[in-house]
Amino acid sequence: MKKLLFQLDTDPHAAVFDTVVAYDGGADHVIGHGGCTPDNVRPLVEGAIFTRAPKEKKYTALFIGGSDMVAGEKLFKAVQKVFFADFRVSVMLDSNGSNTTAAAGVAKLLSSGKLSGKKAVVLAGTGPVGRRAAVMLSNEGAEVSLTSRQMARAKQACMDVKERFKVDLEPVEASDNDARGRVIESAQVVFAAGAAGVLLLNAHHWQGNTTIEMMADANATPPLGIEGTEMMDKGKERNGKIIWGAIGFGTLKLALHRACIAKLFESNNQIFDAEEIFTLAKTMA
Predict the structure, then answer these.
(1) 8 A C-beta contact, residue 89 and residue 61
(2) Contact 230, 245 (CB under 8 A)
(3) CA dihedral of 31, 36, 39, 45, whole degrees rounded to 10
(4) How far out from the chain centre does Cα 160 lie?
(5) What is residue 161's predicted lDDT score, i.e. its pLDDT?
(6) For the chain, what is the mean pLDDT?
(7) 232, 247 contact by CB (below 8 A)
(8) How many whole angstroms from its chain centre is CA 202?
């Protein structure tokens, strides 16, 4: 029985990156559908759940992707609403690689030291990677602050996270590098989640800081989010801090993505969102 993975993408075209990783994760065939929305996805889901016998349904799975996590979350919910009884297949949400990226970064931080009881700051955290990293840090017992250049955006992100994940984050306005440098002065953990090529911290903001223990930077496009680090850093000690660069934990991100794909085909009733993906990441880190 062939393992079929259907990519339901919120963008006009299904992502090539996700297709390649799906094949590497063990799918025999990957069928991409672009432009998927909650309004048009039902026939695709019905085609997936009604075609194979009960014991064979595990060989069909769905992957929700695209560049917009908000759209992905809505599509993810819409897909699950079509399921009933045993007429369901396993489904994974990883819009823009947000779940696997955040899970890999936080899992590597966790492998480097204790997070519980630590003060953690997620810089430029209003995007999907930042929000999910903040949730994962919080669920590991850290006291988490989330920064944005605008307080309104930081507050909205924290409220959205509270509604979805039931965790409390502290919103912080930090409009420039110096402001972000002040925010991390008493932190032990820093996770930079800014846009590609955007410098969030200069070297002097962290190199002399005696409280910071660990840092991760999800940006792999120069200039990096944290000056003075390298994208290839794999738990490297710099100025007394343990550093994880985007490529440094990106190896785990790819392995995690592949592992999730493989697990989709173990049964027909699995749901892979941030929580499930992070749980797996911790076993792999």
Answers:
(1) yes
(2) yes
(3) 20
(4) 16
(5) 95
(6) 97
(7) yes
(8) 25
Residues 207-243 have pLDDT tens digits of 999 999 999 999 999 999 999 999 999 999 999 999 9
Q: Give pLDDT, residue 64.
A: 98
The span from the CA of 72 to the CA of 38, in Å, is 9
Largest CA distance in the chain: 62
φ, ψ for residue 60, nearest 5 deg? -120, 135
How far is C-alpha 155 from the chain's CA centre?
Answer: 20
Report all structural domains of the chain as residue ranges with CATH numbers, in order of start. Answer: 4-97+252-284 (3.40.50.10280), 101-249 (3.40.50.720)
> pLDDT digits over 140-186, tens only?
999 999 999 999 999 999 999 999 999 999 999 999 999 999 999 99
pLDDT of residue 255: 98
Q: Is 62 exposed, middle or buried (0-12, 13-18, 19+ CB in 10 A)?
A: buried
How distant, in Å, are the alpha carbons of 102, 136, 269 from that of 257? 12, 17, 18
**pLDDT of 19-31, one tens digit each?**
999 999 999 999 9
In this structure, what token pair is assigned to residue 190?
């820093």
**What is d(CA 134, CA 66) in angstroms, rounded to the nearest whole number?**
21
CA angle 37, 41, 46 (to 5 degrees): 165
Token digits of residue 168: 């409390």
Helix, coil or strand: residue 97:
helix
